[in-house]
Amino acid sequence: MKRLHLALVLCLGLLAVEAFILLPRGQAKTLTRRSHSEPNDLLRELLRQPAPPPPNPSVVSYDKETQGAEDPPNENAPIADILKYWTGRAVDDEIAYGPKMSDKTFERLAAEIDRDPTKLPQLLDSFPKNERSAEFVKRIWDREGATGVFAREERRAIRKWLLYNSPYFTNDLARLAQTAGDAGSYVTGRTELLNLTLWDFEKARPMIDRLYNSSSTKPSRALALWALYKNALIRDSFGDSERYRDELKKIVEDRDLPGPMRDLALDALVHEKEWPGRDEWYLSLMRDPTLLEIPGYTGLTTLIQVSPPGKYDDKMISLIATADPVTRAAAIRNLTTRRSSLDKKALETLLPWLEDPNWAKDGGGTRLAIVTALSDVKLPESVPGLIRIIDEKQEPVVSDTQITRETSGAAGANAGSAANAAAAAVAAVAAAAAAAGAKQTSVYPFRTAAIAALAKQEDSRAVPVLRRLLNEIDGWEQLTVVTALRRSGGFSIAEQIDALEFSLLEAERHERENEANVASNVAGNVAPPPPPPILNPASANLSNISAGMVVGAQADNDQIRRILGDQIVSERDVGEDLARGVVELISAIEDREPNRAARLRKAVLNWSGPAVNLLLLRDMKLGRVDVDSAIKLLSERKTLRQNHSEDIFDLRHGPPVSVAFAACLLEDTSDQRSILENGDPDTKAFLLAFGRMVRSPLPVAMVGPLTGSPNKTLAAAAEAFLESEDSPEARAVVLGLHPGEAKILGAWSAFWPKGADETLSPQIWALFRSFEDEKGYVGWLSAPDDTIVKTEESLRKEILGDRSLLGVYAYDGHYVRIYSDRVIFSWDEDDARYRERPLEPAEFEQIKVYIRSNQMDDLPPFDQCGGEYCVAKELLMLGRNGGRRLYMSGEPPPVFSGLEKIFDDLRRPPAAVKYVLSREVPGLELVLTYEDLHAETVWRSGNELRAAIRDVVVLKKVRREISDALDTDEIEEPASATDGDGSGESAAEKLRRELTAKRALESLSWRTIVNGKAVGAAEQPPGFEFIPERDATSVQPDSRQWMARYGGVEYRKGPDGLYRVAGGRAHLFKKGKFGTPLVTTNGRWLITFGAAGANPDSEEAGLLRINLVTGRVLKTKVVNEYQALSPGAYLASINKVVLFADWTFYQGESPEQEDDEIADMTPADPDPTFIYLLDPDTGAITQPKGEFRPLAQQSYRQLQKASVPGTFWAALQDVEANETLVGTYDVRTFKFTLVRRVPKILFNSMMMWVDEPEGRMYFVYRGHILRLPLRP
Q1: What per-residue confidence (pLDDT) applies to 1270?
Q2: What is the DSSP letter of 19?
Q3: Is residue 1127 within 8 Å of 1139, Cβ to Cβ?
Q4: pLDDT exceeds 50 at position 23
Q5: How far apart are CA 378 and CA 269, in angstroms?
């Protein structure tokens, strides 16, 4: 295990070094420094780099000198600032302080929401809980209704807010509050009862009286008193307020009462309006040891948590000096409740506790929290105590059967609290010890935190103990010890340089080995081995924390060198002494050992400080700087101007690159103009290249003519600068260079040159980050979105190929195509289908006016996030002679929200449905398309075509009537309001499920399709059970009933068990909860999955074989006992049942649709790796060879027979290629033979019918019926 820890440490270090030194790969092929005697090399490299965009207009910044980070903006601040602060900010947290919104701020936000209601859900929880807020929210709710701008989940959230925070739904709230009462050691229904008290006391009164008159030692009585106290305060009744307050105080003070009851009473007294003498009374409670820590409850810390940060810090610090250990412990715990309270002043007061563990009583990891806080605060006086506490032992007894999940909850709870975060670390130690099977292990609970704190102190007194620890521990702890040693002066400069070079050489060796392995594997056509695991250092530290706390083996010298070197490479601030030493070494060896010097140069690019800056400035002066060094200097431009102004001035007397760099960094407009007017071509080109990277305001009028220079490099630099300058004047020049090319200007997250390497150097990242302290700028940087790029290229191709197309607006799948005689609006429904309609002149004018009035053709990008999960969109405005993009990522700013609203309004019928596929695949025909009739499946025989149709109008009516019957609008009930069956299903959820099941078939019917119309009702085709036939039994069949039928008997799944149905009567066969049953065709076995959600060790949970002769239930062992396996087919020829993992997953749109929408879903094909064959007689399960997905697709019918005996028609999805494969499936050989591909559309065998004599296939896609020639 120790060697494993060491391997992980070295692996992490190696990855860090490789990421910095060896990437991007194109820059790592040689370490020999280039002289750049040919400046065009550097120029070309600079022009290939992404350039920063203009400042992001949606980013706001607060004046941190006059306003704290948690303080709301002034009520007169710009509305963008106010929206930014209050959006998503909840202020009703019961155990945390929240800022209060002023009346004027509320009025301004309300005006914004009136204009754009989509902002309401994100601002809802920040609103004051008063009648004005309730009235406003209710007005917006009523105005938008079910068909307005709110999605289903948003409507639910608003309705729930109104339920708890308004007088409009108190009947529903009263029903929920009925659950208020004792639940174990605490209460349930607290929030419901207190909110009902606020809005309708008369409805709450009977419940309050019931609880008040219950047992005097139950928490529910404290809840009743809280409600009575709240009402008295609302009524401003002094007498009642005093009475109930006194009763609550007595509960808190009574040491014989249960802790939870006292905690609840204390909550009531600190959550409600402050009263005279409250703080004095509270301070008196701090002498009560029984209140010091009530396990699982906030206790005395509640007042601290709901009060403004820092309000009680000085008082707690003063109480720490008291002689009473209980008061001191309570004060310490209060002070450590918030990490922000552990400032230098507080920590100075707490230092005695480091050396004397008995100085105060430790509760909840408080002492560890203090040690942890010292890793952020430099306090030299703490060093002796930290050295002392490093070796403090504990002897926890840990059972060898204890598992880590018993402590994982403690590790994650209240992570924002300093004390609880520290307690989480202790829990992790116990968990690690338990996982190792330890019975009694000596651990050092403060060691990790103390080492990190000593690293912060940077004190040489810590060196001896840290040197000793280096020989006692291993694993991840070596990293922290080496860090602390280095910062404490425990390694000489020579030792650090030696470790740095050792690390760099090891990284090179590792890279060479990887290249050799890859080359060898490619030559042998063998897949390369998987890369070593990349661990999150934080999680690695936590998971290996015990390894560092338990005494380990002596450290190997090379291991320490490697760890030390890796840290030096990856850190930005390595100290000026080390930086100077490395720079001096580079200067001494660069002529005789150029490779070694280049290796060190690459390393120092990650560092900051005068020595590194001077080295790079010297290189610049000599004209031998490379692209990474140049960008590094640009990223440090502010520091260079402040600390190296003379050195920058000296650059003005160097080669062209040096002169241009000085003019760029000094921001000397006269110098810059002089270069543009009189400079040589290289100096001009470098000035433009550098200026492009830092957005220098060079005059467009002077740069424009340079685009026509006979010096191609200068001309390219001028054009690249103008493209990134992005003003209307600059764009006019660039587009003038490319007439008739439909060139697109404007930035994405950056100005990306065509063909630029998307693997970015650390220096580019640093350059973009250097803009972040400028107001209105965020330096997100990500490669252009592939979908957006493909859309741009497609539209460019279209506009250049269609002379009648004058221009196009495109945004998020919406397109406005402008022709001389018409304007066509279209919108994509998916990759395969779109809708299209002409725009009226007034509609087109609305779009133009909106874009023009909001200056969307001139705005900079709204770049607010990056990465895989960041949503990116753009507005493209394009004509034959060029155009511009307006890019955004993240939450759409108001200007985009308004555009979306316009397009949403335009998406209305009548609009023709069209398929992209019709332009690519000859013969595609649209057979049936209705707005209100949704095709589900299809069948063909002879000349007759039938389809199962869902009537959308009927479906909406049924859904509306179910919601009306429930009268709850899907409001979640308290956890206690379940029906007691252990499912956690509320009464409302159960009723909804039952009503939905009862009325599920009302909107479904089979229709005959003639000439593109559903002309009349039809019988369900033979072999189909899409619409199960209802009967008089208590348990109705489902669409898979054909699988569970043998002779005249069938088995049905009911809510409480499996039923045997025969002779028109149903009898309970097996009680429990079961999945879909399958009966083997010999009538001997029933296969099902039992007791979903039950204890997996139960004999009736998991995959079950039920012997229908004896009734015996046999549990079948599977690979994964938590994996739900469903039977898909019985193969009599081999006596096997096909099983597949029943993970409901859909291709296409999510099944979570609006109430008034139809879910367009294609069930995903089962994963072949989770398809098995079961021998029903023996229970043996095997992984089959061959293709079995078609059999697992079977649901409401069997596969359609093909003309060749033993073969069936099947459709398999290729999600990666976004196409469906149609072919024949042989059940004798389990092979699939491809007949044709259907691109951009996904469907399965159940949604398709093949007419072989006609040579055509029919299939359903998102409610439409389409037809294709069977063979391409």
Answers
A1: 95
A2: I
A3: yes
A4: no
A5: 38
Cis (ω within 30 of 0) for the bond into 117? Answer: no
How do 1078-1079 and 1085-1090 pair as beta strands? antiparallel
755 burial (CB, 10 Å; 0-12 / 13-18 / 19+) is exposed
**pTM to 2 decimal places:** 0.73
CB-based contact 282:252 (threshold 8 Å): no
Q: Which residue in 1116, 1142, 1114, 1144 sits closest to 1128, CA to CA?
A: 1142
Angle subtended at Cα 805 by Cα 803 and Cα 808, rounded to the nearest 5 degrees: 145
User: Do the beta carbons of residue 198 and residue 234 sit within 8 Å?
Assistant: yes
Structure confidence by residue, pLDDT tens digits, 925-959? 999 998 889 999 999 999 999 999 999 999 989 98
State how beta strands 862-863 and 882-889 pair: parallel
Kindly report, residue by residue over 584-619, the tens digit of the pLDDT.
Answer: 999 999 999 999 999 999 999 999 999 999 999 999
Q: How far is residue 1006 from each of residues 104, 931, 934, measured CA to CA in Å? A: 60, 17, 11
Binned at pLDDT 50, 70 and 90, residue 991 comes out as confident
Between CA 604 and CA 588 the distance in angstroms is 15
Give the ranges where 726-803 is alpha helix by DSSP (H). Answer: 728-736, 762-769, 786-801
Domain ranges of the chain: 79-165, 496-607, 608-705, 738-915, 1027-1186
| Predicted confidence band of residue 1102 (pLDDT cuts 50, 70, 90) | confident
For 437, phi then psi, to 5°, come to: 80, 20
Fill in the DSSP letter of residue 1108.
T
Residues 409-425: tens digit of each pLDDT: 333 333 344 444 444 44
- Give the alpha-carbon dihedral of 506, 510, 515, 521, to 10 degrees: 160
Q: Is the dihedral of CA 756, 760, 764, 768 positive or negative?
A: positive
Average pLDDT estimate for 677-688: 96
Residue with tokens 């938008």: 144
Are 1070 and 1113 within 8 A, CB to CB?
yes
Contacts for 147 with CB less than 8 Å, ≥ 6 apart: 1156
Higher pLDDT, 274 or 413: 274
- List pLDDT tens digits, range 489-520: 999 999 999 999 999 998 888 888 877 776 66
Quickly tell me which residue has 């020829």 as its tokens.
Answer: 1133
Is the link from the previous residue into 396 a cis peptide, with omega within 30 of 0? no
> Whole-angstrom Cα distance, residue 16 to residue 537?
11
Residue 349 burial by Cβ neighbours in a 10 Å radius (0-12, 13-18, 19+): middle
The answer to whether the CB of 451 falls within 8 A of the CB of 529 is: no
- Under 8 Å between Cβ of 891 and 806: no
Residue 806 pLDDT greater than 90, yes or no: yes
CA 550 vs CA 2, 408, 760: distances in Å:
11, 20, 41
For the chain, what percent of residues have pLDDT higher than 70? 83
Which helix (H) or strand (E) segment holds residue 454: the answer is helix 447-457
Task: Give the angle subtended at the CA of 472 by the CAs of 471 and 478, to the nearest 5°.
Answer: 75
Token pair of 985 as six digits = 């299903």
Distance separating the N- and C-terminal Cα atoms of the chain: 60
Residues in the chain: 1272
pLDDT, mean of residues 467-472: 88
- The span from the CA of 597 to the CA of 506, in Å, is 16
Q: What is the 3-state secondary structure (H, E, C) of 495-542?
A: HHHHHHHHHHHHHHHHHHHHHHHHHHHHHCCCCCCCCCCCCCHHHHHH
Per-residue pLDDT at 433: 44
Q: Distance between CA atoms of 631 and 166, rounded to whole angstroms?
A: 58
Secondary structure (3-state) at 1148: strand
Three-class SS state of 902 = helix
pLDDT at 1068 over 50: yes
Rounded CA separation 150/161 (Å): 14
* Digit-coded pLDDT (tens) for 180-198: 998 888 889 999 999 999 9
